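Now for one record.
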Amino acid sequence: MQAHGPQAAELLQAQLTQDAKSWPPGTARMAAFCTPQGRMLADFLMWKKGNHAIDLLLDGTLAEAVLKRLRMFILRLQCKLDDVTAQRGVFGVLQPSDDAGTLGPDAWPCPAPPWTQLERDGLVLLRLPDAPGMRRILLVAESPIGMQSIENLQNHLAAGTTQDWALAEIRAGIPHVTAATAQQFVPQMLNYEALGAVDFKKGCYPGQEIVARMQYRGTIKRRTYRVLSEGPLQPGDEIVHSADAAQPCGMVINAAPARTGWESLAELKISATGEPGSLHARTVDGPVLRVADLPYILPPQD
């Protein structure tokens, strides 16, 4: 979707966890959209388009409801929100980290810093945080010229699948809310402040008091972890611990098949990750889950 108009940034500034006004040029950023209770309705990848337009990428299962809700807050602001899905093509590129760092037959340079934004040949290039051993780039085609650039790239790159991309996103430790998990998590439960998606110095937004209280009073009891399983997992699957199987201790956020078994990002009670016993998907008789490393370090309070 796109927010555009002279006060588009003001609209997003008042609704999202991210600063939409003091924004370094040539960068993209993540943000969360919360209920007044601090629960995430959606998350976005945002990038600027000129002086008065901001594109926002979110999970397609949430787009209609989120667009409708955000439009409620426009009121007298001089801006609009539109679904521009039909005018955009979104493509992911995965490259081994030890490759040359260029893209396509013309050897476009891929910027090293995560969240860098470049534009050329009708494309927006967004450099995302890496998965271990894997460089991740998002390409957004905005015009027929951009789609032609994509076709040229496809002739020189091996075809992948959406599952390949989902697995790389999981290994990069970037969780995303879907229809199955909307309103289940406060941003810190998804490590969003560690990922730079929450600005604690900006003004108010829905749920800001809850998010700030959790941050400054040290009440973060749940976090997102990378979890491995021999059996299939789905977003929204509850997770139980063998020591207390009657009470769920977490939930699967995103999941994808891997070469052996499945990998997921799962929100878990911090205490459950260190207790004697085992974690299981859905019921105590479900697949055993094993906590694996994330590619970043969580704040030391955890």
In short: The first strand starts at residue 2 and ends at 4. Residues 87-96+103-169 form one domain. The mean pLDDT is 94.
